[in-house]
Write a structure and sequence with these properties.
Membrane topology: Multi-pass membrane protein
Helix content: over 70%
Low-confidence stretches: none
Radius of gyration: 19 Å
Distance between the termini: 41 Å
Structural class: mainly alpha
Organism: Hafnia alvei
Keywords: Membrane, Transmembrane, Transmembrane helix, Transport
Protein name: Purine permease ygfU
Family: Belongs to the nucleobase:cation symporter-2 (NCS2) (TC 2.A.40) family.
Length: about 100
């Protein structure tokens, strides 16, 4: 997306996302028929590997903030509060 954004701007990024969504919708019926050949352990491994492969990107986003910014602590407090509330709520409902 960075390369598309540098050359075509936000319109190019939006168009690429829309095109990818349409392509996904068109391919979904065929891929859905292939899912039955893969056991749950294989699917879980694939999802885990995808998550691990994008982990450095998330780390860069976390570490890329300006820690000296005045509004940083407010954003951090809001995000921490949302995470805590979601975690607490999930624990209450999953018991």
């Amino acid at each position: 997306m960075t390369l598309i954004g540098q050359q075509y701007g936000i319109g190019g990024i939006s168009g690429a996302v829309i095109a990818a969504g349409i392509f996904t919708l068109l391919c979904a019926p065929f891929v859905c028929k292939l899912v039955r050949f893969f056991p749950k352990a294989v699917m879980g491994t694939i999802v885990t590997l995808i998550g691990l492969s994008i982990l450095p990107v998330a780390g860069g986003w976390i570490g890329g903030g300006d820690l000296d910014a005045v509004s940083f602590w407010q954003l951090r407090l809001a995000v921490d509060g949302l995470i805590y509330a979601g975690h607490r709520d999930a624990n209450l409902h999953l018991r």
